[in-house]
């Protein structure tokens, strides 16, 4: 955080008092509650003032809620309505079909293929990523020189756009002239056609996602680790606990809320992976080809939705897919949450 | 292990530095590599082993980028889109954050919970009705369709609420009230100056996100009036694999942001870490 308010604010005309720089931590800790008496005790202000004080909070939050209702909430509800219809963008009639789209969807092999691919890519990218980020944060959480330089470099991939990441990695994973295959052949291995196989394409996509997000999660863990009281480590060191034992016994339990947070956010993110597989297959897929590889070997749920909605314009069917996808997200996030809460729960 | 740990204060472990250097290398290498590819011609990239140093073809390739795709228009569009979204998110998030952090009103905690809860809803769920809405409003194909749905951000509101409840001294507000200042005056003269550093970080994060956004602009825009990311993707998905062209486009789309990030990285990282602690 920049240390103080910029100079031009120090004596802003009209306020009559110099403004203070933001204090880093409010010592009273709980500013919301218990302040009511002070509020009442002040000299009676004009009536419109009291009205203003009463209504202005709603005025301040209304831009957010109005825009969110129009472009966030309304589409959610409308998805449910559309999903009950045979709704093709190119036709003017939208016949009501009830649960027909959902029945068709659950019998659609491509849908389940996409679900399995999403889970596979999600697990491959998230689990190693978060473990690695945890270890990386542990490495950074000690007195180091060039601390800022390391942090900036680690976050660099996160500044790069998804499109750029896939373009760069498509070159690296290229079959003919790719860097990775060049290294493989230099060591005497065979070239790998990364896009063609299910496992290899999932690995390549997971690599891209990991590259983009590991540093970000490491910094979030680092922030949490820096809030762990030093005395805990000092006491453990006196007791002769090894660095690894301190990591498992102190660091991990102490930052568990943050770990739960990152697991949930990463899970939601990984269930929505779409741009990576869409662009990874882009060079070979003409408009008539399926998305996510010639055999849909890396088509994710998001990409399935895109193909149904914006290639075939079957909006009703795609909306049904969106809802089932949402239920799957809730299910997977819920399972993950219970799992992570239970892990090493006794230590926390 | 424990012997080293006992040293406590300053542990300069060469192994830690080496590991971190290796990881930093893998973080930075793909970006460096994109510049290498972008500065050669396709013939050079087909050689084995491939060249590892930048060549002299960068500007020729960038010129080809601007000839092949409407990149100039795309850059203007992206600046307008990201700029408008950033200003709006900063303003509305600070307003709502102030209300949630420091004002008392009925339904405050419930509304804050809803705000946080919306961050958990996958954006793809509403994308089809959103598209239908844009057709109805006749905004599809225009950048208004990209700007308007992103004008507010639940994350931004949450971020500013977190910051202001910590950094804004309540007695400053009380003093203003005793002096008879209206809430909106308090906002302009007390809250805004204090909120500035956090709002700046939020602005940088928002700009980055908006600049890099891909899926929704792809759906709602056309290839001849795109944002940078959409233009880049159509550049990269031609029928012939032209990696030097694609990566020169990547450099044009990415390097401005990377440069800003390297210059302001300390503040951005501070913001991300600060927002994370309470999360």
TrEMBL record, chain A:
SUPFAM superfamilies: MalF N-terminal region-like (SSF160964), MetI-like (SSF161098). Its main location: membrane. InterPro entries: ABC_transporter_permease (IPR051393), MetI-like (IPR000515), MetI-like_sf (IPR035906). The keyword Transport applies. One of its GO terms (biological process) is transmembrane transport. Keywords: Cell membrane, Membrane, Transmembrane, Transmembrane helix, Transport. Belongs to the binding-protein-dependent transport system permease family. It comes from the Bacteria. This is Sugar ABC transporter permease. It is a multi-pass membrane protein. The chain crosses the membrane at residues 58-81, 110-137, 149-174, 194-213, 254-275, 315-339. GO terms for cellular component: plasma membrane. PANTHER family: ABC TRANSPORTER PERMEASE PROTEIN, INNER MEMBRANE ABC TRANSPORTER PERMEASE PROTEIN YCJO. Residues 1-45 are annotated as: Disordered. The keyword Endoplasmic reticulum does not apply. It is found in: Cell membrane. Residues 115-336 form the ABC transmembrane type-1 domain. It comes from Sphaerisporangium rufum.
From TrEMBL, chain B:
It is found in: Cell membrane. Its main location: membrane. GO terms for cellular component: plasma membrane. It is a multi-pass membrane protein. Pfam families: BPD_transp_1. Gene3D superfamilies: MetI-like. InterPro entries: MetI-like (IPR000515), MetI-like_sf (IPR035906). Keywords: Cell membrane, Membrane, Transmembrane, Transmembrane helix, Transport. Residues 75-264 form the ABC transmembrane type-1 domain. The keyword Ribonucleoprotein does not apply. The chain crosses the membrane at residues 15-35, 71-98, 110-131, 143-165, 186-211, 243-264. One of its GO terms (biological process) is transmembrane transport. Belongs to the binding-protein-dependent transport system permease family. This is Sugar ABC transporter permease.
């Amino acid at each position: 955080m920049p240390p103080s308010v910029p100079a031009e604010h120090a004596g802003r005309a009209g306020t009559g008092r110099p403004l203070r720089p933001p204090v880093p931590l409010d010592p009273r800790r709980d500013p919301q509650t218990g302040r009511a008496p002070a509020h009442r005790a002040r000299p009676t202000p004009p009536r419109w003032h009291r009205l203003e004080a009463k209504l202005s909070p709603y005025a301040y939050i209304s831009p957010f809620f109005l825009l969110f209702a129009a472009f966030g909430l309304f589409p959610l509800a409308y998805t449910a309505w559309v999903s009950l219809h045979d709704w093709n963008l190119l036709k003017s009639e939208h016949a009501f079909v009830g649960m027909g789209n959902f029945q068709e969807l659950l019998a659609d092999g491509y849908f389940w293929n996409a679900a399995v691919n999403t889970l596979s890519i999600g697990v491959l990218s998230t689990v190693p990523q978060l473990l690695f980020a945890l270890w990386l944060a542990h490495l950074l959480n000690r007195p180091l020189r060039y601390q800022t330089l390391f942090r900036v470099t680690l976050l660099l991939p996160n500044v790069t756009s998804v499109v750029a990441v896939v373009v760069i990695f498509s070159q690296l994973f290229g079959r003919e002239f790719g860097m990775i295959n060049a290294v493989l052949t230099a060591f005497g291995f065979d070239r790998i056609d990364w896009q063609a196989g299910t496992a290899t394409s999932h690995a390549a996509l997971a690599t891209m996602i990991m590259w983009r997000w590991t540093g970000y999660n490491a910094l979030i863990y680092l922030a949490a680790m820096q809030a762990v009281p030093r005395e805990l480590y000092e006491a453990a060191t006196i007791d002769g606990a090894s660095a690894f034992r301190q990591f498992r016994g102190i660091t991990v339990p102490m930052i568990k809320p943050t770990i739960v947070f990152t697991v949930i956010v990463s899970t939601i993110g990984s269930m929505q992976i779409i741009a990576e597989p869409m662009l990874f297959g882009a060079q070979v897929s003409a408009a008539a080809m399926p998305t996510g590889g010639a055999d849909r070997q890396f088509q994710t749920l998001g990409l399935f939705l895109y193909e149904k909605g914006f290639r075939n314009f079957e909006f009703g069917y795609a909306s049904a897919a969106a809802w089932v996808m949402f239920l799957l997200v809730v299910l997977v996030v819920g399972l993950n949450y219970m799992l992570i809460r239970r892990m090493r729960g006794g230590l926390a | 292990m424990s012997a080293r740990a006992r040293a406590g204060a300053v542990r300069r472990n060469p192994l830690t530095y080496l590991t971190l250097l290796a990881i930093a290398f893998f973080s930075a290498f793909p970006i460096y590599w994109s510049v290498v590819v972008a500065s050669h011609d396709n013939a050079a990239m087909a050689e084995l082993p491939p060249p590892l140093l930048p060549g002299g073809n960068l500007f020729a390739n960038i010129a080809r980028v601007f000839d092949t795709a409407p990149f100039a228009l795309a850059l203007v569009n992206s600046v307008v889109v990201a700029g408008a979204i950033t200003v709006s998110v900063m303003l509305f998030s600070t307003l709502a954050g102030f209300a949630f952090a420091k004002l008392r009103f009925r339904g405050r905690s419930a509304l804050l919970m809803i705000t946080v809860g919306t961050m958990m809803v996958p954006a793809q769920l509403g994308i089809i009705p959103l598209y239908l809405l844009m057709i109805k409003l006749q905004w599809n194909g225009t950048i208004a369709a990209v700007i308007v749905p992103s004008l507010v951000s639940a994350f931004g509101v949450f971020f500013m609420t977190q910051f202001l409840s910590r950094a804004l001294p309540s007695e400053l507000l009380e003093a203003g009230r005793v002096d008879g200042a209206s809430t909106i005056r308090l906002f302009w003269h007390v809250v805004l100056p204090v909120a500035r550093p956090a709002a700046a970080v939020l602005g940088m994060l928002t700009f980055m996100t908006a600049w890099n956004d891909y899926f929704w602009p792809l759906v709602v825009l056309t290839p001849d009036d795109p944002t940078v990311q959409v233009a880049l993707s159509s550049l990269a998905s031609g029928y012939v694999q032209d990696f030097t062209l694609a990566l020169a486009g990547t450099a044009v789309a990415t390097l401005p942001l990377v440069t800003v990030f390297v210059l302001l990285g300390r503040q951005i990282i501070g913001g991300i870490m600060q927002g994370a602690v309470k999360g």
